[in-house]
Amino acid sequence: MFERIPTQWFFESVEMLFGYVRQELVDPLRNAIRWIGFGLLGGLLMLLGYVFVAIGALRLLQSELLPFDGAWSWVPYLGVSLGGVVGVALTFSRISRRSLK
After folding, report:
1. Domain residue extents for the chain
2. What does pTM read for this prediction?
């Protein structure tokens, strides 16, 4: 009895198509970009923190705790480098791999 006008059917179909595309493509893509952005920002801030801690530890080892002079001046650099490698390895071991959902 009440039939739809063909133009009304067309506009409803287009509106439904755009809603589906947004639901299945745009929203997950936006979430993935946000997830990657926060991950990169967190990684950069952690790198900056590691650099500051390493410089502080090197300064502490060189001046206060272990005054190596002459042929042993490389020991604080080796200690800080090994500590940095261990710290980065511990950090990577604690990273969880969650899905983007």
Report:
1. 6-93
2. 0.65
